[in-house]
Amino acid sequence: MNFVQDLKHNLTQKACRETAIPMENYMKNNFNFLGIKTEARRTIFKETYEKHKQEVKANFRDIAWQLFTKNEREYHQCAIDLLVKEFKKNYVLDDITFIEKLITTNSWWDSVDVLAKYILGGYLKQFPNETYKVVERFSNSENMWLNRSALLFQLSYKEKTDFELLKSECLKHSKSNEFFIQKAIGWVLRDYSRFDAENVKKFVAEANLKPLSIREALRNIK
User: Fold this and answer.
1) Residues 6+ positions from 78 with CB-CB distance below 8 Å
2) How many CA atoms lie within 13 A of 180 on its CB side?
3) What global pTM score does this model have?
4) What torsion, rounded to 10 degrees, do the Cα atoms 58, 61, 62, 67 define?
């Protein structure tokens, strides 16, 4: 039995329809769930991973994609956990095509936010010369989740954030009426305010952002 088959067997054993219903409701019924809570799912994933470590390490991109295209959300979550684990400083230049495919497949905030912060963010840390090209393509896309990713990828950058790029992206999307874009603008500004509150406050005062973005951006600034 290979990793994907074994993981499916182990997750199915713990499936609970009673637990799945509120999970599906929370996600606006965009996805089906097996009904396995995060801690239990991660335990199953870890134990199965250890059993098949050699296979997984050699084929983690293909395995993650197999999981990401399954029906239930727990498989998508396992795929993302796998990629966060295996991609660390282990990207190749062409991975951006795969990352874009992941962001635009089975898209919702819970998957996109992790992919943007840890996977896209990690890729652009390893290949910083690709940043402006990738951000421009994602930011200009008609796909809202790619737009959101172009805003959020620097969440893991802390004091190394390119604030000029961040401001440019916030301004570019500042008139958007999309909730997930307004929220992302506020979130990424609030995150950076931990390192440069005064410049975030100054930018917000001058940028004419949407009220939701302003509230989120200034939430932690006294």
Assistant:
1) 7, 11, 41, 45, 67
2) 15
3) 0.96
4) 120
